[in-house]
Amino acid sequence: MSAVVFTPIASRPPPVSAQGPLAWIKRNFFDGWLNSLSTVVTVLVLLWVIPPLFGWSVLHAVFAPDNAACRAAHAHGACWGVVVEKGRLILFGRYPFEEQWRPMAACAILIALLVASCLRPFWKRWLAPLWLIVLAICYVLMRGGVFGLTPVETARWGGFPLTMALSVVSLAVAFPLAILVALGRSSKLPAIRAVCVLYVELIRGVPLISVLFMASFMFPLFMPQGTTIDVLLRVLVGMTLFAAAYLAEVVRGGLQALPKGQVEAAQALGLTYWQTTRKIVLPQALRLVVPAIVNSFISTFKDTSLVTIVSLYDLTGALQLALGDADWRKFFLEGQLFVAAVYFVFCFALSRYSRWVEGYLNTGMRRQ
Amino acid sequence: MAAPPKTRSWSWRSKAFRGVLYQVLVLGLVVAAAAYLFSNTLENMRVRGIKSGFDFITQPAGFAIGESVVPFDSSESYGKAFLVGLSNTFRVAIAGIVLATVIGTLVGIGRLSRNLLVRSLSGAYVDLLRNVPLLLQLFIWYFVLTEMLPPIEEALHPLPGLFFSKNGLQFPHPLWVPGHWGTLAGFVVGLIGVRGWARWVQARHDATGQAPMFWLPALAIVVLATAVGWLLGGAPTGFDVPEKTEINVVGGGAVTPEFLTVLLGLTIYTAAYIAEVVRAGIQSVPYGQHEASVSLGLSRAKELRLVQLPQALRVIIPPMTNQYLNLTKNSSLAVAVGYPDLVSISNTSLNQTGRAIECIAIVMACYLTLSLLTSALMNWYNRRAAIRER
Question: Which residues on chain A are in Cβ contact (under 8 Å) with B134?
């Protein structure tokens, strides 16, 4: 008796309607009447919007900084020449023209460090002092007055470096403050908790613009007779206080997400409050909220545009300044779109990074 | 074995003592800092001859306000000017909240669409709008609305009765006649009727376990009652329709380009955030819920209404309220395009009277009250909506 050998027949390929490009198209565009209707309507709208937009922004656009050509093309073509002509004024504001390599260098260093801080190999203890050193270097570069650099007072700082400096410095200072406030808010001591709650709720309840008005109108009154503080510093203090309140809530979220057993275990080991906080609580809590911190950075970066209203010339403000002259006034929109693109590139990259880091940090958690 | 005697020894190193010490230190620091700033402020104000106090509230403001819900005259008081500013803030905020909710919900659902085009366009909308500062967006809208639209002599006329130009939007609006009180009364009666209907539905559900459809009849009750009220009021149909003359458009209701800018900017910006809230809410309902409702034999409509929506809303409503609050706070950016909201009025008053502290305090107090009220409301809702666990 010979053994019956089981020889499976080859599995059949899936039906044509389930794979291949045709199926993909059906699944994504014509899956049911509602889906088909959406496709048709969307395509019609796109056909209506895209060609004129493309014509305006590319076909009929003027790319050379030629005012006459721009004026001729005004109604039907964009004038990107305005970006070429006014680009440096938009990016660097009123900073002396021949010294503009300095803010450029400062920005380059800051961005390089920012990118480095986003990468895993640089998450080391020396990163924090490095930030302090780099910020100091950037300040010296921008302010001048030493090493043969001509001094440039802060009132003339502007454009992208100012936007960058405001957001980086206010967040860097706000961060330790936020940790203290968050710890205070989850403390068992009623008076400390009350002070922290009051601060956070007070700041979060009012719009940033009123905090900035306070910084520019009321801070001078707060200082002792005879001292004057720089507008930039005042605005920086306002932005820091504002950012710290929001950041404190982010950190508190991390503190609350930490399992209670961690603190109990630390206490059982005989660690003091500060030891527990420094070695057990914060490392884990902060790790949980890294994505949220990046998001805070994005909103702070966008919020810096508000300093325009208290007459500092950041990126948004420098644009108003740059396009003030009558020749180029008409092409405000092109300038605005350029500035919007700068903000977008920066914020979009950060938001994608935030999403990546969320997944990256979660890998350890997912293991169990 | 007896329990060991409780030791109630007091020491410098006890936890309780340190707790008290820290609190005293922190409070002392805060009070000292406040006192220092306060004394500085008083000294500065004395030296610079700045008067303080809220007495300016009753003095005539001396400036006109471009647009307001209630008429405002420059001889009226600062207090009234602040109220007008507050009403303008509310006007743009409420309109913005309604529109942003509609657009945001559509985009949020669009992000989960099976249609690739709709999905990616919605995604692009969210990414684009959230990553550009609101202030810049407001400037762009303002430029588009005031520079790129035709002048009023050649106003765009997309629909009969609508005129759209550099001077804003003019639209027909119903003429106010006493007969409209009837309409209003009908509406109120309708609302009371809906309350009665809700009670009846609840009672029937409690008694028989059947749940009659609630929303459609409720809507019908309101519409019917309003229509009856309108008929009883003499069915007024008078509309004030804007008319185009050689050089102008007269009559009708009108909104300024500043209002439109702020409304459009806030709506479109906040809608992107609301879309994310809606998407997260919908995605938060586990798939098992869908399977469970299918196995119970619920229809798709009933599944959405009774299973999906209540659970999604529990996740959506708190962050949604947060977005509403953000929109209201962001309406303060109106000052940048010259829409006379609360902040802009306060700024003008500040420049005229020099009472910086008072003017900023009024603004902060207004927004703070609003925020605290909203968060109180939210806490109440959260307590009510929380899943009751064992």
Answer: 302, 305
